[in-house]
Design a protein that fits this description.
about 15% strand, Oxidized Rhodanese, domain 1, about 40% helix, 5-stranded parallel beta sheet, alpha/beta, 4 domains
């Protein structure tokens, strides 16, 4: 049976569409570690290995112009077939993949979340965001100066490693919480992340919001701290408290002013509903914290904390040129987040005039996933019996990190990209195959392919690895049978506590060069608001 034929899109046409702010979805279908080696600025990473888990929410309109590419691995054709089978009608392949992109004058950016990181550097370049070196901050802390350190990363990142004495205040919460954490205008406020972007954006947010305190970014974050030879804390749990009414009111006033300056629109619920019926992509994000969202949210909204939305915009709003609508219940977090997204070149609106009754849905956000042909499930107990008998091969499609930490004895760790490239040769011989992952959701999408390649019975472990562990069946750790290379996740040079100093320094050097690379690229559409003199009574 012949493969479907998809049209090619030229690099020049995509570059022009970006400059014209048309809707564009440029999708790199390689696994994340390969994506991080080089990609167009506004390319988004939706790996073939887990395509079904992410596609529907990240590209919600079936008529969106989607351009797929790899770097010669042969994955884009397979991804196009899967995407078209899900009802997407405007799917094309990038002419000559990344080689063609470069040959046509397109820039390649390394790392992940490159648009947001490049934008952060542009903000510092234009606004001269105040910062202090690691040694200067270390001296302040050790001299018992009147200083607070606010960690703008996710709470889990903060727990992994943090500046001594720091409090976790993720970036989207800073403007709302800072007045209560540092009520005296004499208190120096230090904002840090692991590298540069979130500390720059967080510090500039506080400057823009007119707080009376001296405020500085910790230059180069925990990377800079480590390179300066200072120790980090681990396993800390200090978090922000409730915002007072006075702090909230003051913050809301300033946040509204900043958003207005940035050109943020304001829409009622009726306008949102009309937009959602139109063919143009409209993303709806609730930027409060996870507990608030779970307690009550607008049906159909996705929870993304404001700071992470600015930091990882490409991961959530994967169609460049789409509309973004934001929700909060305090007048601060949505406005601050929107002010940055507008500067990042998005058409962004804040949803207003919501009533308490509108927040009628509860619970955590759940991804949309396509239906899968009902596989034949087996119980953990049945699998245990088969493994005892022999001739049964377990294929584990979880993340490599999860697999190394705990897996079913004898299970082989496998990426679907490897299965696509290598076919049957990637699989150990067996009489039957049992597929699993954390929950078995992803495993279900691989059943048909494994069955076609092997001609053998294929089953899915009901409840996945979680059910196996819940049944108190034996597990093992380690790399006994890795059937794929370690490419499912890019190891960020700013995470963890065991990164080589040379790697951390190379990452900083890359960030320093991003402004020049933006100039060469010419498609970004970023605009940085000039800093304003602040009101001393803020």
């Amino acid at each position: 049976m012949s493969k479907p034929v998809f049209p090619f899109r030229q690099t020049a046409d995509i570059l022009e569409a970006l400059r014209q702010q048309q809707e564009v979805a440029i999708v790199d279908v390689r696994d994340e570690a390969l994506f991080a080696t080089g990609h167009p600025l506004f390319a988004v990473n939706i790996p073939l290995s887990k395509l079904e888990l992410e596609l529907l929410d990240r590209i919600p309109q079936s008529a969106t112009a989607i351009t797929l590419y790899d770097n010669g691995e042969g994955l884009a054709q397979a991804a196009a077939e899967r995407i078209a089978a899900l009802g997407y009608s405007n799917v094309a392949l990038l002419k000559e993949d990344l080689t063609g992109w470069q040959a046509a004058g397109g820039e390649l950016f390394i790392d992940v979340n490159s648009p947001s990181k490049a934008f952060g550097e542009l903000v510092e370049h234009h606004n001269h965001t105040p910062s202090l070196s690691a040694d200067e901050v270390h001296s302040l802390i050790n001299s018992d100066a009147n200083v607070v350190v606010l960690d703008a990363r996710r709470f889990d990142e903060y727990q992994t490693m943090s500046i001594p004495g720091a409090t976790s205040v993720p970036g989207g919460e800073l403007v709302l919480r800072v007045r209560d954490i540092a009520p005296s205008p004499e208190t120096t406020v230090i904002v840090n992340c692991a590298g540069r972007t979130r500390s720059i954006i967080g510090t500039q947010s506080l400057v823009n919001a007119g707080i009376r305190n001296p405020v500085f970014a910790l230059r180069n974050g925990t990377i800079g701290w480590t390179l300066a030879g200072h120790d980090l804390d681990k396993g800390q749990s200090r978090r922000y408290g409730e915002a007072s009414e006075t702090a909230q009111r003051q913050a809301a006033s300033h946040a509204r002013g900043i958003a207005d300056r940035a050109g943020v629109e304001r829409i009622p619920l009726a306008t949102l509903k009309r937009w959602q019926q139109e063919p143009r992509t409209t993303y709806l994000f609730d930027v409060r914290d996870a507990d608030e969202y779970a307690a009550g949210h607008l049906p159909g909204s996705r929870h993304v904390p404001g700071g992470q939305l600015v930091q990882e915009t490409d991961h959530y709003a994967s169609v460049r040129g789409a509309r973004i609508v934001l929700i909060d219940d305090d007048g601060v977090r949505a406005n601050m987040t929107a002010s940055w997204l507008a500067q990042l070149g998005w058409q962004v609106s804040v949803l207003e005039e919501l009533q308490a009754s509108d927040f009628s849905a509860s619970g955590a956000w759940k991804a949309q996933v396509p239906a899968v042909a009902q596989p034949e499930f087996i119980s953990p107990q049945q699998l245990a019996e088969w493994l005892e008998e022999g001739q049964t091969q377990v294929l584990d499609f979880t993340t490599r990190a999860n697999h190394l930490n705990s897996h079913i004895p004898g299970a082989g760790w496998l990426l679907r990209s490897t299965l696509q490239k290598e076919g049957k040769s990637a699989l150990p011989a067996a009489r039957r195959y049992v597929l699993t992952c954390g929950s078995s959701l992803l495993a279900g999408y691989a059943v048909e392919q494994v069955a076609e390649l092997t001609g053998k019975p294929v089953f899915v472990l009901e409840g996945g690895n979680a059910a196996w562990r819940a049944a108190q069946l034996p597990t093992e750790q380690g790399d006994q049978q890795l059937l794929s290379p370690a490419i499912d996740r890019y190891r960020r040079p700013y995470e963890g506590t065991d990164i080589a100093p040379a790697v951390m320094q190379a990452y900083l050097d890359w960030e320093y060069g991003l402004v020049a690379q933006l100039d060469r690229d010419g498609t970004h559409g970023f605009r940085v608001l000039p800093a304003q003199a602040q009101n001393a009574t803020a």
